[in-house]
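User: I'm writing a tutorial on reading structure tokens. Could you give me a worked example: one chain, its sequence, then its tokens, then a sentence or two explaining what the tokens reveal?
Assistant: Sure. Here is the example chain.
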Amino acid sequence: MPAKPATRGIKPSEPGPIAAYKALLKDYIDRRPAGMRARIAIALGKHKSFVSQLSNPIYPMPVPARHLSTIFEICHFSAEEKKSFLKAYMVAHPARAAHPSSEEVGLHPRRKVLSLEMPVLRDQRKQRALENLVRQFVERVAELID
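And here are its predicted structure tokens:
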């Protein structure tokens, strides 16, 4: 007699609001040229696997609001795509919807994403340190100029 499945009698749960906006994000990224996740990862200073988790509805990890503007800019979201994504995002995060600020909804008017070619170091720890140093340098120079 075959063993009964462990999930017998349990209905799969409906996808939640986070999964809903992540499904939109996945769809929008999948419509872009190959290598988009890698470009997003570079711009965020993260690994490609982090971006894959951000855009996969199976993972419950929410997309941090601070990353939205970078994702929008790198992927060149249309106005309609951005609007539908933000609508789903606000449903999933109603506290942000109650008090939206441009930063919380991922719209950083004073930020620009710039891709920069850098040498690849053998030591991953040193590579991350170099990338963080460049980010900090840009922030400090911008503060001095502004």
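What the tokens reveal: The chain has two domains: 17-108, 116-146. The chain has a mean pLDDT of 82.
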